[in-house]
Amino acid sequence: MESKTILVTGAAGFIGFYVSKELLALGHNVIGIDNINDYYDVNLKYARLAELGILREQAENELNLSSSTSYGDRMQFVRMNLEDREALPNLFRSQSIDLVCNLAAQAGVRYSLENPNAYADSNMIGFLNILECCRHNNISKLVYASSSSVYGNSDAVPFQETANVDHPISLYAATKKANELMAHTYSHLYGFETIGLRFFTVYGPWGRPDMAMFLFTDAIINDKPIKVFNNGNLSRDFTYIGDIVSGVLSTLLEPSDSSQLYKLYNIGNSQPVKLLDYIEAIEEVIGKEAKKDMLPMQAGDVKQTYADVSKLKTQYNYQPKTNVKAGVSAFITWYKNYYK
């Protein structure tokens, strides 16, 4: 495969880090951007970048492009906000970018209740800035992160891409639905391909500290109670990071149907797991029972997620392979090594 130069936003984030690492392993050039905000522990973000060869002192220099050592000049990084209307267009103009993978966003359903402006800035203005840069720099394909949260509290499972998603129940979900509409408009008006991926509860090594896998593991190991919302009557389509990355790379690198420029896909495990069963799997690997604080449903949360991935399977041969037991074990091994 011919080497390409690919812009990956959110390169210090969970999924962005893995996508960048795999692209480099395949011989591509990566320009990573991230604002390294303090939504969660920045040390974890810098540690991910270090795995890509970007040293902390390099990454801390805002707007200065720095190259990694372990991948030569094939990995470059710049610290930047997506919504910066001068810096982002300047970056596009200064580099010969072939493809864009937009994984940067203000994440988290619950945090959107506390800090809505962060979601407007990053997820709305930032995404518009990305679309404008793609438009003006002849980018042929943009792959971007959407979310299973767009389905809201739908009872029609498994969730299909053709379902009505006009009723999001969190601001985070609303911004992701808006991203899909914005991408559709730009594909229609300016003729470049946009592929939205609706991620379903991604977990695994190097995962986010605000996610259930991390929170539960940390609490159980440290003898703290875990918060179990809706008294445990929740289910999630937990999807291992390795399966997610394989799907992202397929949509990004493989040729697709050129007659249809705007595309949307579910990307999940298609095997929903009850929350209490997930906790049990963690308890089993750690060898300790959780202290459970049973709580009511939290605002913005959904009761279930369940992905129909047949469309992604048909068009890109997507095949999730990692079951929850194996994924949980891999995460806990990483957690114990990382936190000693």
Q: How would you describe this structure to a colleague?
A:
This protein is of the alpha/beta class. It has a single domain, classed as Rossmann fold (3-Layer(aba) Sandwich), CATH 3.40.50. It contains twelve helices and 14 strands. The strands form four sheets. The protein has an eight-stranded mixed β-sheet, sandwiched between helices. A two-stranded parallel ribbon has the order 8-11. Strands 9-14 form a two-stranded parallel ribbon. α7 (171-190) links the parallel β6 (141-147) and β7 (193-199). α6 (116-136) runs parallel beside α7, α8 (212-221) packs across α10 (275-286) and α10 (275-286) crosses α12. It is globular, with a radius of gyration of 19 Å.
Radius of gyration: 19 Å
Largest beta sheet: strand ordering: 3-4-2-1-5-6-7-12
Q: Count all strands and give the number.
A: 14
Distance between the termini: 40 Å
Mean pLDDT rating:
95
